[in-house]
Automatic annotation (TrEMBL):
This is FAD:protein FMN transferase. Mg(2+) binds at A172, D289, T293. Magnesium. Can also use manganese. It holds the Pfam family ApbE. It catalyses: L-threonyl-[protein] + FAD = FMN-L-threonyl-[protein] + AMP + H(+). It comes from Blautia obeum ATCC 29174. Keywords: FAD, Flavoprotein, Magnesium, Metal-binding, Signal, Transferase. One of its GO terms (molecular function) is metal ion binding. Its EC number is 2.7.1.180. SUPFAM superfamilies: ApbE-like. PANTHER family: FAD:PROTEIN FMN TRANSFERASE, THIAMINE BIOSYNTHESIS LIPOPROTEIN APBE. The keyword Membrane does not apply.
């Protein structure tokens, strides 16, 4: 059995802790601070442009705090862990978590359950990123599927009720939420002119602009290139978020079949629909993260209507080496591989 983990996207360039002076704007010298950190069980890459202090350490801590205080299902003191422990009862949560959950469950409804935050038990049964990745028995899946379904959770303001047996796992939106938190923080920092933040290669935030006015560019991985070469690059504007979901990020091979971590909430099995990856760009980290998962599960044809509803753009890569672009992605995607063919998603 062979286990693989691979990043989906990364910023064009190399990250390391550094301080670099960049061109002067309005007689004030803007500094460029770059840093690598670790949060949400992944590498975090940060490039900050500011006339003030280096905020990268504080930003890394904010991402860790959002996980331990709100999102972690393993930390018994987090709000999600407490919600799961109280399954069958009503629990009051913070305004922040209630706001996240409202968006998450609206997306679950709009995607007809293709994105579903109640699938955590089945994710852990497969243990694809753990020490014992395996294909579960059908009887095991059937038993756990009884507790899956976003309809098993009700929201009433700050009050959340899970049906007994149901649990929440916000892993599919966690990195996007982290990006949103950082973006909100930067809006309070008058000295900051721009930042690019990359969580684990799959979630990216662009904030503000570079001092020289050049574009924010994010490289997208070729999902079938074991050497790690890039499929292409996407240009982001300040205030945009990017997320990629793919069958190559976390998976194991058994009997020649790829068992990956994006599961269909209806069957409990990995999604096999001809797609290798989906990259989504929109104005929310949480939604970019959730939409990339939902669109992968839905498949391109059914995903287009959902993307339009959320005013989001996407790049679909299929197993036949076709790259499909939504209309708003045509002028911002640059192909780097001549082994792929670019087409219009329609």
């Amino acid at each position: 059995m062979k286990i693989k983990k691979k990043s989906a996207v990364m910023l064009c360039g190399v990250f390391c802790t550094a301080l670099t002076a960049v061109p002067v704007l309005a007689d004030i010298e803007v500094q460029k601070y770059t840093n690598t950190d670790f949060a949400m069980d992944t590498v975090v890459s940060e490039t900050l442009y500011t006339t003030g202090d280096d905020l990268n350490t504080a930003i890394g801590q904010k991402i860790r705090d959002i996980e331990t205080e709100y999102l972690s299902w393993t930390d018994e003191d987090s709000q999600i862990a407490k919600l799961n422990a109280a399954s069958g009862e009503t629990t009051e949560v913070s305004d922040e978590l209630a706001g996240y959950l409202e968006k998450i469950f609206q997306l679950a409804k709009d995607s007809n359950g293709a994105f579903d935050p109640t699938i955590g038990k089945i994710i852990r049964l497969w243990d694809i990123t753990g020490e014992n990745p395996h294909v579960p028995e059908q009887s095991e899946l059937d038993e756990l599927l009884k507790d899956v379904g976003y309809q098993k959770v009700s929201l009433d303001g700050d009050k959340v009720t899970l049906e007994k047996g149901a649990t929440l796992d916000l892993g599919a939106t966690g990195k996007g939420i982290g990006c949103d938190v950082v973006s909100d923080f930067l809006k309070t920092q008058e000295d900051v002119s721009g930042m690019i933040l990359n969580l684990g290669g799959s979630s990216v935030m662009a904030y503000g602009e570079k001092p020289d006015g050049s574009d924010w560019k994010v490289a997208v991985t070729d999902p079938r290139d074991v050497e790690g070469d890039y499929l292409g690059a996407i240009t982001l504007e300040g205030g945009e978020f990017l997320s990629t979901s793919g069958d190559y990020e976390k998976y194991f091979m058994e009997d020649g079949k790829r068992y990956h971590h994006i599961l269909d909430p209806k069957t409990g099995y990995p999604v096999w629909n001809g797609l290798d990856s989906v990259t989504v760009v929109c104005d929310s980290g949480l939604l970019a993260d959730g939409l990339s998962t939902a669109c992968f599960v839905l498949g391109m044809d059914d995903a287009l209507e959902l993307l339009e509803k959320y005013n989001a753009e996407a790049v679909f890569v299929d197993e036949d080496k076709n790259v499909y672009l939504t209309s708003g992605m045509k002028d911002r995607f640059e192909l780097m591989k001549n082994t792929y063919t670019v087409k219009e998603a329609e």
